């Protein structure tokens, strides 16, 4: 399974999260996952909330359209983006490879 896969109602992203980064960014591929750096610390769900907000902004969707399907407590996550309005360049590049 690739880092980014299309599904009927949107995209499924396999992510590797780097918390406490200097800035929020989609770094690129990390093995077969997409590495995302976020500034929030991995404490009390702060990183997940921050990640959801960041991804919603990147894909121009509501926060409720960003669903963490797997990996709530770990660095490796599977996130579903429902009906993305736009694709960040790093993600668009990966969807074209399939």
Question: What characterizes the major β-sheet?
Answer: 6 strands, mixed
Indicate the low-confidence ranges by residue numbers. Answer: none
Percentage of residues in strands: 35-45%
Cα distance spanning the termini? 10 Å
In terms of quaternary structure, what is this?
A: single chain
Gyration radius over CA:
12 Å
* Number of helices, where a helix is a run of at least 4 consecutive DSSP H or I residues: 2
Tell me, rounded to a whole number, the average pLDDT. Answer: 93
* Helical proportion, percent range: 10-25%
What's the total count of β strands? 6
Order of helices and strands: EEEEHEEH
From the helix content, strand content and strand pairing, which structural class follows? alpha+beta
Bulk shape:
globular
Characterize this entry briefly.
The protein is of the alpha+beta class and 98 residues long.
Walk me through the topology.
Blueprint: E1 4-7, E2 10-18, E3 25-30, E4 33-37, H1 46-59, E5 66-70, E6 76-82, H2 89-97
Polypeptide structure, described:
The chain is an alpha+beta fold and 98 residues long. Helix content is 23%, strand content 37%. It is built from 2 helices and 6 strands, in the order ββββαββα. Strands 1, 2, 3, 4, 5 and 6 form a 6-stranded mixed beta sheet that branches. It starts with a strand and ends with a helix. The relative contact order is 0.25. Pfam families: DUF167 (PF02594). Belongs to the UPF0235 family. This is UPF0235 protein AB7Z85_17240. InterPro entries: DUF167, YggU-like_sf.
